[in-house]
Amino acid sequence: MFDKTYRQRLEADLAQWEADGVIAPAAAGAIRNALPPLSPGINISVVVGIVGGLLIAAAFLAFVAAHWMEIARLARFAILLAGMVVAGGLGAWFATTRRLVLADLCAGIGALIFGSGIALVGQMYHLGDDFAGGMLLWAIGAFAAAALTSSRGALAVGLAAACIWSCTRVYDAPDNLHLPFVAVWLIAALLAFVWNSRVAAHLVAVAVLPWWVATSVRFDIAGAQPSFVLANGAALLFGAGLAIAASPSPRARLLGGVLSIYGALSLAMVAFLEVITVDDLIRLRTAVPAQPLWAILCGIAGVLLALASAGITKRPGEILAACAIGLVLVAAPIWPASAADESWFAYAALLCAMLCLVVSGVLDDVRPRIVAGWLGIAGVIGGITWAVKGSLLRRSAFLAAAGIIAVVFASALNRMLPRAER
Fold first, then answer.
1. Distances, alpha carbon 280 to alpha carbons 277, 340, 386, in Å
2. CA-CA 20 to 30 A from 231: which of 22, 34, 211, 392?
3. Do residue 154 and residue 265 come from a single domain?
4. DSSP 374-397
5. Given a cut of 90, is residue 339 above it in pLDDT?
6. What is the pTM (predicted TM-score) of this model?
């Protein structure tokens, strides 16, 4: 909250209020003194230093790569070990001098060198060809470095390695859920919670998406539709984020708020995918699928968590968020139908879901949720308009009817809401 932009806006407001006589100069001074000091940002010297360090590292790597085959095995390993020691030593020195950005960068570089060391040892000594196992070992080392140094860079490296490990395991065994990734992800989420870092929260939220996408695409139970499985994942992420953000803990609110943002964006993307995969644009369904029970339970949990959050916070927008989740989930089973007919009820459900998402963001004053809803509306309308199957005239009639209903609904809301809330 106390970032540079906020402080600049607050300073301008305090000056204006003091000039208008709204507050006394002593009160303005007390407010300024009560604010915590700003954390040091990234200035020009830090940027130039980072670029210079990266150039030196690239030159070193290029030199070593050019003479790689001429270097003895033990010397190769010593070079990588020395790289980790140097990166760690520089990071410690930067940390003691309060140059935290450079210290974080050094920890991330050390984690990258650790991964290179794993690959080198495996290549030199012809260890078992277990690529996924090497990625897991790399992720464990990077997470250890992140936990010891509070490095967001090391956390990013660990999450990337964990995602590759999990996607590889999913590809090798597509009929089984790769639940070990969930345990690894929860460890990363715990670090983000303890650090109270928005950057770490974003990294954790992004990391869950590749696992769910890989699971949705590769999981094959009686022809399960990937977009339906994705919808349940988006529902769980969105609902869980809202529920976590409803906690009184500021750390939980930060983490939950970021998770709910990615959940809303994922829900909008799934709504678009449901439209384009049901027709001949991207043909994925050939028969009425039997959806996996675990996916259905995840979707139900997402709706219930969103409703629980609405009950705690008393925000009407979160009730509409739960409605948006439920409508997207309901749209998928409505679909298969016959190849000749179009699922107008599913189209209507998705449009209503995205409208609920927009209104939810407006009522709760959450801009990312508003953006997600508008993107979803645009995607659903585009999918309905440009789908190959069916009559374009009937589609235009459907969109016109939906537009008229939306205008009537807007007029009713305008009359019902107080003037200050319109």
1. 7, 11, 11
2. 392
3. no
4. HHHHHHHHHHHHH-SSS-HHHHHH
5. no
6. 0.77
Element (H, E) at 270: helix 250-278
Q: Is the pLDDT of residue 234 over 80?
A: yes
Q: Which residue has the higher pLDDT, 97 or 394?
A: 97
Total length of the chain = 422
Task: Report pLDDT digits (tens) over 157-171.
Answer: 889 989 988 888 887
Cβ atoms of 417 and 362 within 8 Å: the answer is: no
* Residue closest to 107 by CA, chosen among 120, 126, 94, 122: 94
Cα 291 to Cα 330: distance, rounded to the nearest angstrom: 13
DSSP string, 170-228: HHHSTTS--THHHHHHHHHHHHHHHHT-HHHHHHHHHHHHHHHHHHHHH--SSS--HHH
Residue range of the domain that includes 176:
70-216
372-403 pLDDT tens trace:
888 988 888 877 777 655 556 666 666 677 67
- Asked whether residue 22 is domain-assigned, the answer is no
**So what's the pLDDT on residue 1?**
40
φ/ψ of residue 164, rounded to 5: -65, -40
Q: Which of 199, 216, 233 is the last residue of a domain?
A: 216
**Tally of domains in the chain:** 2
Considering the domain architecture, whether residues 201 and 227 belong to the same structural domain is answered as no
Q: Are residues 119 and 261 in the same domain?
A: no
